[in-house]
Amino acid sequence: MSICTVFGVAAEDSGITVTPDYTSYVITLSGFAGEEYSGKLVNIQIFNPIGEDVTELPEVTTENIDTVLTLFSNTGVKTDGSFEYKFKLSQSAAAENPFWARVDVDAAGAENPALMFTDSFSYTSKQQIDAKLEELKTEIDIETFEADAELLGITLPAVWSELDSAQRSYAAGIISAKIAAAEDSFTTEKLAEYTTDAVMMTAAKDANTAEQLKAFLTAEVQKSYFGIDLENTYYTEMTPAKQTEVFARMFESISAESTKEDIAVIFRESLLLESVQNASYKNTIGSIIEEFADVISSENMEDYNSISGSTRLNNIYSDVIGASDKELATMDAFNEMFAEAIKNSGKKSSSSSSGSGSSSGFGSGGLVMPELPNSAIEGTVISEKFADISGHEWAREAIESLYDKGVISGKGEGLFCPDDHITREEIVKMICDAVGIAKNTEANYFKDAEGKWFEGYVNAAYEKGIVSGIDAESFGAGLKATREDIMVIMARAVGTDETGAAVFADDDEISGYAKNAVWVMSQKGIVSGYPDGSFRPKNAMTRAEAAVVIYNLLKSNA
User: Fold this and answer.
1) What value does the mean pLDDT take over residues 316-323?
2) Where are the beta strands (DSSP E) in 106-197?
3) What's the CATH number of domain 5-121, 2.60.40.2150, 2.60.120.10, 3.40.630.30, 2.60.40.2080?
């Protein structure tokens, strides 16, 4: 075993972790021997300080034990193979660093050297820590800050090493400001928190390009620290170029006053603006507003929620999707435009007897097709089954037919929620009911389905090979069902053995397991792509869209 200095954590090639407690002056020495040594004694020797350049510790004998050792004791290996021992050093001992610890487990020796551990450790007294904290209250010296942090047991964020002197000085200023503003006592834990905040925010603000900001914020540590939701469907379904545009918007929005909490909000705001900018059909605007309601002004959302679904679709969504680049440049501009669209929706509704506009239409069983002109839907029939589908005439027949067959139901209070994204469990239930697959409530294959309303459907579909889980224990309940996965489930449910041919401009983006199902379902007229020739396999489907493709499937197999 090599001898290496550790402070608060074990060195990579050591079997010992040394953890000082500066309040109680107690040091915890711990390690792992192995379950096979459970109950064996662990012999612990703490040597008096003998210098930092020691390469070999002296042997302890009855003659020199009093002068060589500070402490000699033992403990036992626990049933899980670990061991732990606590001991106390005097405050004055801090000046005599470093100490050395040698540990061996009974049965260790030349034949089993892996059970012998040797390490050095330094001990810093509470007085030293308190003095250093008082010093840092007055000034943060960037030249000595790394050493100060090490003394206090603070691990600097990795990006500290990438900051230049000006950036480090800026971060030091943030730390000093946080210390001055703190109302409670100043501790090492508080300093660690302030330091991480300052370093991370400095690195985020000093990115020189949108690409640099994207690389910084999407790295695992920063993504977790700032709470950036990179799993959001609207983000994952964007091309890499469009994702960079989201960060370009962030790049313009982050200011010197931005905080850690602001970053996650700015990301969602930027994603909202870019999603609206990229929306091709007005029926998608409702889903976008629902997803990002938390970053839209509460006054706007209160007014918006008081307006009927058909008025939203025919008036508000048209204004939002037609917004100019200037109106989508900032959240202030968006909220101003959105407020105006809400205000104008009442005027448009009162001047139109036919409830102008339509949602995206469905051609012969297809999904999203170009919007129909107003004249094409005059005389719209209001559904007697659901109060919220009057603006979805392209899906009304499918929804009502499946409702009559017991394939679908609403979400209570006479609502179908047509613009909600369909989840994996919802589509499985609908398809099972549509093709006559009986529930199986006797088995349980997935923990996240156990005891839930959809468990019987998921069990039955799994047994028939129609669906699989996202891992060995989870079905993926609550996740949005993608367009390609829905085609696979449908193809398996009806047992088609046909072979399809390439159809879409983005066929290379369709997962290998889904390509044939997508092609066959398209060629049978059950689903179609977008006007630009793409299928967008990773997009989620809405409940209205899912109803239409299932309705088409039943007609195709009638």
Assistant:
1) 82
2) 116-121
3) 2.60.40.2150
pLDDT computed for residue 49 by the predictor: 82
Question: 20 phi and psi, to 5 degrees?
Answer: -80, 145
Residues 6-18 have pLDDT tens digits of 333 333 334 678 7
DSSP string, 36-74: GGTT-EEEEEEEPP--TT-SSPPPP-TTTHHHHEEEEEE
Rounded Cα distance, 8 and 139, in Å? 26
Q: What confidence tier does 4 reach under pLDDT thresholds 50, 70, 90?
A: very low
Give me the helix-helix angle, 483-494 and 515-523, nearest 10°: 80
Side-by-side strand order, sheet with 26-32: 16-21, 26-32, 82-88
**What whole-number distance in Å separates Cα of residue 186 and Cα of residue 171?**
18
Which residues are CB-neighbours of 169 under 8 A, at least 6 positions away? 142
pLDDT value at residue 352? 44
Evaluate the CA torsion angle 383, 389, 390, 393 in order and state its sign: negative
Lowest mean pLDDT across 16-20, 80-84, 397-401: 16-20
Q: Which residues pair with 75 in a beta bridge?
A: 42
Condensed to tens digits (0 to 9), the pLDDT of residues 509-538 reads 999 889 999 999 998 889 888 888 889 999
Pinpoint the residues of the chain covered by CATH 2.60.40.2150: 5-121
Where does residue 177 fall: left (phi above 0), alpha (psi -120 to 50 degrees), or beta otherwise?
Answer: alpha
Work out the mean pLDDT of the chain and round it to a whole number.
81
Residue-by-residue DSSP string for 159-180: GGGG--HHHHHHHHHHHHHHHH
Q: In what order do the strands lie in the sheet with 41-47?
A: 5-6, 116-121, 99-105, 41-47, 69-76
**Cα 311–303–276 angle (5° rounding)?**
70
Task: Decide if pLDDT at 386 tops 50.
Answer: yes
